[in-house]
Amino acid sequence: MAELSGKVAIVTGAGSGIGEASARGLATAGAKVVVADLNKERAQAVADSIVASGGEAIAVGFDTSDEAQVKTGVEAAVAAFGGIDILHNNAAITSVDFMMRDGPIHGLDVSLWDTTMAVNVRGYMLCAKHVIPVMLGRGGGVILNTSSGAGILGELVRSAYGTSKAAVMGFTRSVATQYGKQGIRCVSVMPGLTMTPTVAANVPPPILEMMKRHTLTQELATPDDVAAAIVFLASDRAARITGATIPVDGGFGIHTPSFADEMAMWAAASGASGAAVVEKVRHALDARYRDTLEADDVALLEGLLAEDAVWHGAGLDAKSDARGRTELIRRWNELTKSDKGAPQIDVGDVYTDGNHVVAVLEVSAGEGSGRAVRQANIFHLDDEGKATEIWAIPGNAVVAQALASGKPVAEHPNVAIFRATEDARARNTFGPEDIGHIERFLREDVRWISPWGKGPASREEVIAQFGTFNQATGGTFKLDINEVFADDTHAISLVRLQADRPDRPGKHMDVKEANVFHLDANGQAYEFWGVADDQAAINNFWT
Ligand SMILES: NC(=O)c1ccc[n+]([C@@H]2O[C@H](COP(=O)([O-])OP(=O)(O)OC[C@H]3O[C@@H](n4cnc5c(N)ncnc54)[C@H](O)[C@@H]3O)[C@@H](O)[C@H]2O)c1
């Protein structure tokens, strides 16, 4: 048997939006429903469609702010169904023209204030006043009042509306207090912005997007989401809930006010805005590998490099480090013009976030030589996203030597240590030997600067975090190591991350990531970043 079977419910403002969804939800749960609205035609249409789908409903038209009309409406409901067990006070003035006039207090139209209070507050009181005696005669009932997030948070413009909705919550507590012992529960349901047809037709997309940014769930609520809470609260499953306000707002009203700003900040730091930097770097790198640097190319490089940029181990001739944007550009220009035969360079993968850019290049000795060496370039970014320091691993001189001799690049000793560590990390099992590899590589005060804020700050914490990835993904977390580069100052691994979320079916991650480690003089890592080719996909996977 449906859980509200035998109950009679009256829903005000049920000709549209949340009230309509509530009426349908209560009818589906077995209640006989009185669809009440100022707009009798709409109420009738909703009642007819409930009946057409097998429910029981009648329509009554009345203005909730008018006591005589409320009295007649309640009498009509009782006459039709023999009593009332559930009252959903929901009607409020929502017309766009009216709401647009509800502004800051110093210019407020007093009649607008009075009309708002008459419908949104007096209307709830009047319906309760006339329904409570009916409920008491049947041993109890449930009164549900639709309030709004506007009633608990300061409103920038809707002064009257916000105040009326705060009053609804106070009214709810008084009803619950006065009639609880006589079997009447009273609960306020507090929707956030809800995608009713009126909202969909009138709220501009940028505002909807803004509201979504401040909402913790992925989508804004629908009228059915609110109706689901109403049906639950009307049922005996909620028998011990009274006097409370239940938010159905996707967490809009519970988080720190800086939530959306923080999310934007982390997204910026994590490469959601990184796509633009990737493009910039790719163009600048392409410019760098043209035969000569023309004015346009120089402009691209200037856009990328900070004035105090430093290239460690710059020239193919192993000259000392180059310092300053102008000096770097001059050397690149010289290099490409060199009659020694400039190398052919292809720009492969480019990864970036707010801290680093990693570009993987393929350097070849010249057409037809058949010799090529992979090289990773790391750029450190300053606060404005400009490159301040640059490394190439293996260094240019090493690459040049390998190309000239036809022998492979001699691996730096750090590569071996690092590869063992990365292998351990990829296994995700962490036996004693794996921990040993990781400990050999990580310094005690290692820090992972993750896009989500400061990460683990000790070796143990970092190791524990690797373990939790596997747990959080139900064992599906998979890390494939593609390439590993290292020298005295940095180590980089290029990995592919794949995982599913057992708790969120459909969430799947498949991204490439460059992990950049800073090394001390002993080859131990003290800071690292994970720079993804699609950080937004990673963010989406974990949130
Ligand atoms: N939609 C939202 O984003 C949202 C958010 C928070 C709270 N709410 C609240 O939810 C409730 C329903 O709003 P909605 O968005 O579904 O609006 P809606 O405009 O879709 O429906 C409101 C209904 O109330 C009726 N009504 C208005 N004045 C009346 C009166 N004096 N007597 C009888 N009926 C009257 C209207 O005819 C209309 O059918 C309201 O209390 C509103 O304040 C809505």
Secondary structure class reads alpha/beta
Low-confidence segments, given as residue ranges, are 314-318
Globular, elongated, flat, extended or rod-shaped: what is the shape?
A: elongated
**What would you report as the Rg, rounded to the nearest angstrom?**
33 Å
Q: How much helix, percentage-wise, in residues?
A: 40-55%
How many strand units? 19
CATH class of the largest domain: Alpha Beta
- Can you tell me the number of structural domains? 3
Q: Could you give the order of strands across the largest sheet?
A: 3-2-1-4-5-6-7
Report on the structure:
42% of the residues lie in helices and 25% in strands. The strands form three sheets. A seven-stranded parallel sheet has the order 3-2-1-4-5-6-7, with helices on both faces. It has a six-stranded mixed sheet with strand order 9-8-13-12-11-10. A six-stranded mixed sheet has the order 15-14-19-18-17-16. With 543 residues, the chain is of the alpha/beta class. The longest helix is centred in the N-terminal third of the chain and has 28 residues, at 110-137. The radius of gyration is 33 Å and the shape is elongated. The protein folds into three domains: 8-247, Rossmann fold; 274-405, Nuclear Transport Factor 2, Chain: A; 413-542, Nuclear Transport Factor 2, Chain: A (Roll), CATH 3.10.450.50. Bound molecules: nicotinamide-adenine-dinucleotide. The site of nicotinamide-adenine-dinucleotide has 29 residues, from α1, α5 and α7.
List keywords for this structure.
Rossmann fold, 543 residues, alpha/beta, binds nicotinamide-adenine-dinucleotide, Nuclear Transport Factor 2, Chain: A, 6-stranded mixed beta sheet, 7-stranded parallel beta sheet
